[in-house]
Amino acid sequence: MTAPINILVVDDIQQNLIAVEALLARPGVALLKASSGAEALELLLEHEVALALIDVQMPNMDGFELAELIRGSERTRTIPLIFLTAAAREASYSFRGYEAGAVDFLYKPLDAKALVSKVNVFVELYQQKKQMSQQLEELKRALRLNEMFTAVLGHDLRTPLSVVMNGAMLLPMMTDHPKVAVTAQRIQSSARRMAQMVDQLLDLARIRSGELQLRLADQDLEAICRAIADEFHGGDKPQRVAVEAEGNTVAHVDAGILSQVLSNLLSNALQHGAPDHAVMLRIDGSAPDHIVLGVSNRGVIPQAQLAGLFEPFQHGSEARKSGQGLGLGLYTASMFVKAHGGQVDVASDEALDTTVFSVLLPRRAVEARAA
Q: What is the pLDDT of residue 200?
């Protein structure tokens, strides 16, 4: 059974308390009666209240003083307050009541229908608030469960995936049959793509759970960029990524996470850019307090897609069916850069037929920002 909804009624005249109780009493609603401000505060310490009806003219502590004490407490400051008064309708009097935190005034003798109607509104609002709070907690629990599932799934997929990759490497050594070599190469390519997806799922789980931690140290960004660019070099094929650097390229960053950012941006540029043009990676270290990394490629991103480009799961269903990934690369790259205190921007120029992703990194990322 659900707990009843409490309504606090404060009045120093017992007959008034009995009359209000007679009007408002019904199943699911409990009336907490107090004959003084001190007694009302004691009840508020013990019970959660949906609404308080407070008489203004009371000895020792009047309704305005009680309202100020209620508003001064973190636990009770959100309780709606309705003042009950027999005083004349004076503007200054009402102003003081609203200043003390009242949501309404009711004048004695009370209009029974008006009182019941107003109380019903606040009871319904309280029920909706409790329901929304419960739904929010359920959503939080579901989100935590989903994040745990994603992390466990990504972690447990690594072991069988490593076996598949090692087996694909051994296949060509066991026979000279050309079809075996081709099949092994396809298995390795698919396994590497799956490993990237697993890494993205784990990155997403770390970002969502707030467990992303940076291992910061002074690093030469030019060296990191050239190492990542070499990973995309296909043996005897022409260099697919050209690297240019100027100024001081040393910054206090997490080398591993920054490598993931660059890998995601370069992979995206190579996948969606013009295949007959190299991707340009520029490192601008001319500014004293920050470094700018620019990844540019031939091709234009439609304006309609630019606004949500860094949101997760931006690939459509057809892109995922074709094995292009989960649509998490740009999202994780953006979150990793933000963890360093930097930002990622994109500009696509139709006239120049060029798209540029710019990464601005402070020279010294603050460790606390990773939290």
A: 65
